[in-house]
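Bench log, entry 3. Co-assembly request; chain sequences pasted below exactly as received.
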Amino acid sequence: MWDTPITSRGLVVYLYRISEEIRYSVHFKNERLGEEALSAKQILQRFLQIIVVLLGISFLTFMLTYLAPGDPVRTMYSAAGTIPTEEVLNERREELGLNDPILVQYGRWLGNCLQGDFGTSYSTKKPVGQLLSARLWPTVKLALLSLVLMLIVSVPLGMLSAVYQNKPIDYIVRGFTFIGVSMPNFWVGLLLLYVVCLQWGLLPVVSTGTGFQKIILPAITLAFAMASKYTRQVRTAVLEELHQDYVIGARARGSNEREILWKQVFPNSLLPLITMLGLSLGSLLGGTAVVEVIFGYQGLGNLAVSAITKYDYNLIQGYVLWVALIYMVLNLLVDLSYYFVDPRIRLKK
Amino acid sequence: MQKFMGFVKKNKQFTIFAFLALILVLIAILAPVITSQDPYATSLGDALQAPSAEHWFGTDKLGRDIFTRIIYGSRLSLTSSLILVAIIFVIGSLLGVLAGYFGGIVDTVIMRISDMMISFPGMVLAIAVAGILGASIINAVIAIAIVSWTKYARMARSLVLKIRHVDYVYAAVVTGSKDVSILRKYMIPNILPTMVITAATDIGSMMLELAGLSFLGFGAQPPAPEWGLMLNEGRSYMQYAPWMMLFPGLAILITVVIFNLLGDSLRDVLDVREE
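Structure output for the full assembly:
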């Protein structure tokens, strides 16, 4: 039924996310048992898949920028404040290789990329690789901090809400998460900016650099929406485990609740939670763009948005490719982590 | 009528949220009745006025009435997100059903493309697509559709696979039913409830993504009264006119909450398996 690990995992995760309901997960748990184990062959397969997907994505981005309206050469000159003749424009296009057939251009670009040369940014005249790597760390830092914030908030809240299911505390948590999920993250960012910087004057509105003062508000903004979603998922996963027979058995034997919760229920609900963490990385990487723009945080997303407004195709391509690569590596790590979390996989051989 | 009242009684939650959603739709349709002002009419003399009896939500930098713009903005937000969900629902489900039912090369091609999309942060590609196609609300819809249909394709495919090999489908094949009629009689009715629930719960998040693209400047363009765009305009005037960013955000929040609740309660109505 399942042809590749990535397909089946994606499916499990999607149904999880959509339904967040117990009735599905019981079914999928049985499915999962058989096929999540990653053998060396499967890891190799995953690497091959990554390469195929990267090729596809690179071609897609390349095609998009190729078909895009707006002439980069013309933009380049008008940015410099000169009005060039058609002859000059053509000469420049020839020099940049923009007159060659598309497949030739793609092949040349891809060959260069493989050697670490992502071309030169049209708007800044600097190598794309250099521009991107300068912005990589700030964005990773932002993503990691918000991930930590999110976990600190949502794991305890989700467990609390599951343990006290249908009690007042559960309703309160669920109410908050519901509003959190429905709030646009850019609005959360603006409100934070308004309250913390303008009303309370705790932090400077405009500051350069990527220090703590600059990173904390974007991180909270990013964590806010993710935490709402994740709290619900933690709740669902823990609830599902709480309804298993072994919990009833443990209670019957007289184990205390705390021990059951931390020694049995929590480790067992880790697997779906890690899967969902892997998926939220995607929205995290995309979400940084919006948040970085609001706070003027100098990260990858901010760079990409300004590149798009300037028709800086090389930079856009580089950005899309980099983010895809980061995302896939992270997901591979998530897959590998099953091996450590799930003894059924580790001990199977 | 009796039947209707019975339905209402049985599904109180759903009825309430459906009613609220209906009100939103009515607000959009009846915008000119609700407010007599013009969402595009600028009046620089009235710029950046605080909320008052005359301008309930204040005015923006060009002196346009924010209340009026928010009311008219519901038209753009509702139509664009409903169209977006309809597009991905139809395309995704169709491709998923085909992939699941026919298998083989059809399945491989569709699922590889969808693998490619899933191995990729959606918003990043949407930003790139929207930015490259050029900024407009239609392109924003296309951009999000390109990255979102795969979810429906995967779901439809898995649901079809689940019933592909049950006896009544084999019986239909053996008795000589055509593919089209098997799809229509067995596959589609079987998968439809789950797919509709998914689509309904997605309306809210699609609205958020569209507003996000507009906020970045890759969606609706000025002077359109679009909530995400209005928030972006309000950003620069935050210090002097916080109402410019408060009310459009509230409008988004309320609308998304209503549609999310509607989607959740629809699940209880349509999901017969629970009983």
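The first helix of chain A runs from residue 5 to 19. Chain A touches chain B through 62 residues (CB under 8 Å).
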